From TrEMBL:
Domain of life: Bacteria
Gene Ontology MF term list: ATP binding; ATP hydrolysis activity
Domain ABC transporter: start-end pairs: 18-108
Protein name: Sulfate and thiosulfate import ATP-binding protein CysA
Keywords: ATP-binding, Hydrolase, Nucleotide-binding
Matching PANTHER family: MALTODEXTRIN IMPORT ATP-BINDING PROTEIN MSMX, OSMOPROTECTIVE COMPOUNDS UPTAKE ATP-BINDING PROTEIN GGTA
Gene3D superfamilies xref list: P-loop containing nucleotide triphosphate hydrolases
Length: 117
């Protein structure tokens, strides 16, 4: 998977949670978001996943635009084909990490061989 973020901004009223974020990750690359509470890490991840609507900028996943404020374009959450596991027990605490992550794929009727990877 590749990811490209260009000039991404997210405002909550007068508060700027994201200001001109630019990031490019090629397939196979790994990145970590680190910083103090309230610096925008979760807002950025939620924007990539489609759970937040950025104020402006562009997001591309696998060279396909999923958000572009200039074109008034935003791909639906379910069509972005991303998974997100929250730090707290937001899903099912009785399931393993693998079972929580695979849950959405299993209900989407994804072949088991693909899920087991």
């Amino acid at each position: 998977m590749s990811l490209s973020i260009k000039n991404l901004n997210k405002n909550f009223g007068d508060v700027s949670a994201l200001h001109d974020i630019n990031l490019s990750l090629n397939q196979g690359e790994l990145a970590a978001l680190v910083g103090p509470s309230g610096c925008g890490k979760t807002t950025l991840l939620r924007s990539i996943a489609g759970l937040e609507h950025p104020s402006s900028g562009q997001i591309e996943i696998n060279e396909h635009s999923v958000f572009d404020s200039e074109l008034n374009e935003s791909v639906a959450i379910q069509d972005r084909k991303l998974g997100m596991v929250f730090q707290d027990f937001a899903l099912w605490p009785h399931l393993t990490v693998y079972e929580n992550v695979a849950f959405g794929y299993a209900h989407e009727k994804t072949p088991k061989i693909w899920i087991s990877g």
